[in-house]
Amino acid sequence: MEISQRIKLERQTLKWTQEELADKIFVSKRTISNWETGRTVPDIASVLCLAKVFHVSLDDLLLEDSTVVNEIKRREEIVNLSWVYFIGPVLTAILLIVMMYSLPEMSNTGAVSFISAASLTNFFTLCVFKGKIAQLKGNEEKFKKELKQMKILGIVTIILACLFTIALHFI
């Protein structure tokens, strides 16, 4: 039995309305409705509260329905992805600081190279992050299509940066 059906069954067994259950576990009536219809699943804190008010064990509530466990794992993985946010900006900041302090000795070509490297670090981070999110959402095919487009855009950007560097060299 899925957790949505289990919540509804337990609530009806106790002859509670959705609003009464919502008041007992400190969520809205709409949240209970969403859980019972299967549109959303409760987070771990809500599952603990449900087990307590229904007087059932977590095993009874969770083990019959792996969707809740999978949803909790998915949310945890998304939280663990937060480190990816920082890779691109940190690398960009380092490259730009190095560029700032070495600017007087650096030629236009060197400056363009540093700026290109900074852009590529951000682009790489974006691709990794977007890929992980697509994987967690189950949209891997859509991401693969977008990745092809991003590769083309990246190659065009690199070619334009090279042409710009060459043009600066002859000016």
TrEMBL record:
Pfam families: HTH_3. Residues 7-61 form the HTH cro/C1-type domain. CDD domains: HTH_XRE. Gene3D superfamilies: lambda repressor-like DNA-binding domains (1.10.260.40). InterPro entries: Cro/C1-type_HTH, Lambda_DNA-bd_dom_sf. Keywords: DNA-binding, Membrane, Transmembrane, Transmembrane helix. The chain crosses the membrane at residues 83-103, 109-129, 150-170. It comes from the Bacteria. The keyword Membrane applies. The keyword Membrane applies. GO terms for molecular function: DNA binding. This is Helix-turn-helix transcriptional regulator. It comes from Enterococcus avium (Streptococcus avium). The lineage of its organism: Bacteria, Bacillati, Bacillota, Bacilli, Lactobacillales.
